[in-house]
Write a structure and sequence with these properties.
about 80 residues; alpha+beta; three-stranded antiparallel β-sheet; 3 strands
Length: about 80
């Protein structure tokens, strides 16, 4: 398996893994349970959660992740302009 990305927070992790699962992409979250022990301490490498996918699914998974992350970046709520 190869690294897809490291989510910034728990919410991002949940959405990304849901997207992968709904699209039939097999994945593994490295440090899935350990990473939640100290949620505010993601600056330490041992606490980082990493989404891994099969090499054969990397292109599809990357496209899904990129589309989601781009949509989040363009969201008015992310920019502090919530109505």
């Amino acid at each position: 398996m190869t690294k897809l990305l490291s989510p910034r927070d728990e919410a991002e992790l949940m959405v990304l893994t849901s997207l992968l699962e709904c699209n039939g992409i097999v994945f593994h979250v490295q440090n899935a349970f350990f990473g939640g022990l100290y949620p505010g301490l993601n600056i330490f490498p041992f606490n980082e959660r990493v989404i891994l996918v099969a090499e054969s699914d990397l292109d599809r998974a990357s496209l899904l992740a990129r589309d989601f992350l781009n949509a989040m970046a363009e969201s008015p709520e992310r920019e502090g302009h919530a109505g």
